[in-house]
Design brief:
single chain; 237 residues; alpha+beta; Phosphorylase Kinase, domain 1; D-amino Acid Aminotransferase, Chain A, domain 1; 2 domains; 7-stranded antiparallel sheet; 5-stranded antiparallel sheet; 6 helices; 30% helix; 32% strand; globular; binds thymidine-5'-phosphate
């Protein structure tokens, strides 16, 4: 057994025998409203591990440097150890969520070009919205690093739009986290799952993501299962 290094809202992080590798355990836990709404949901951990493993594997084949090494079990994966940069990088293709609310815009409008936002990853402050001057002032990342992160996030957006489109889903928006590996290189970390993406069925416009839990409009496990099933049945997989 290895030591727990960090207990997050949906995952725990554990050390391994290798200094530069970590074991992530996906938990059967769902939270919303920055942890104010919290439930145990049987099967969620397994589904998110499966979905994130598939997506990261695909990102690797598309040349996106990331932390994922392999899936270890139903709920565990092996990843490269990184120091997470405390930024939540959100990319939006369609108006929804906090963007629609903050700017008083209708949900579901195509954005003429992707909109990228930064949030300070700091639970105690409720992850506030921030800009590049704030990142610079707080010394979270250099200007060059921020440019690189933005470029990567937009590249990842294009890759993910195509991936989800191939399984009949529109990628509305998503959140990424980046980290520095032992060589100081910035790579994609954390997860890409229906917890961290808004995914709308192209035909019905139904949400196949955590919004069903946030808004109490459906069964989380059923919709995550549908995303996993479509990824598994994807042509060429
Ligand atoms: P938002 O519209 O609530 O700002 O969310 C934008 C996207 O980022 C959405 O796909 C959900 C994801 N997200 C996270 O993964 N974690 C978070 O803490 C928040 C606020 C959003």
């Amino acid at each position: 057994m290895s030591d727990i290094l960090y207990l997050g809202k949906a995952k725990s992080v554990h050390s391994t025998d290798e200094l530069d590798e970590l074991r992530l355990v996906y938990l059967d836990q769902a939270t919303a409203l920055n942890g104010k709404k919290k439930d145990e949901i049987l099967g969620k951990g397994q589904l998110n591990n499966e979905i994130s493993s598939k997506v990261f594997h695909y990102l690797t084949t598309q040349g996106i440097k990331n932390h994922w090494i392999k899936q270890l079990s139903d709920t565990e994966q092996l990843v490269k150890a990184v120091t997470i940069i405390p930024l939540e990088v959100v990319v939006r293709n369609i108006s929804a969520g906090s963007f629609a609310k903050r700017f008083g815009i209708k949900e579901g409008l195509d954005l003429p070009k992707p909109i990228l936002e930064f949030y300070y990853k700091e639970d105690a402050l409720d992850d506030p919205f921030m800009n590049e001057d704030h990142i610079d002032y707080l010394k979270l990342a250099s200007k060059e690093d921020v440019s690189f992160i933005k470029e990567q996030a937009l590249k990842i957006n294009n890759v993910l739009i195509d991936l989800f489109s191939s399984i009949g889903l529109t990628l509305v928006d998503f959140k990424l986290e980046f980290g520095r590996d032992s060589n100081g290189q910035i790579i994609l970390a954390d997860e890409v799952t229906p917890d961290t993406c808004r995914l709308w069925d192209k035909e019905t416009l139904a949400s196949l993501d955590k919004d069903v839990y946030r808004k109490d409009t459906g069964d989380l496990v059923s919709v995550y299962k549908e995303v996993a099933k479509r990824l598994n049945e994807r042509k060429g997989e």
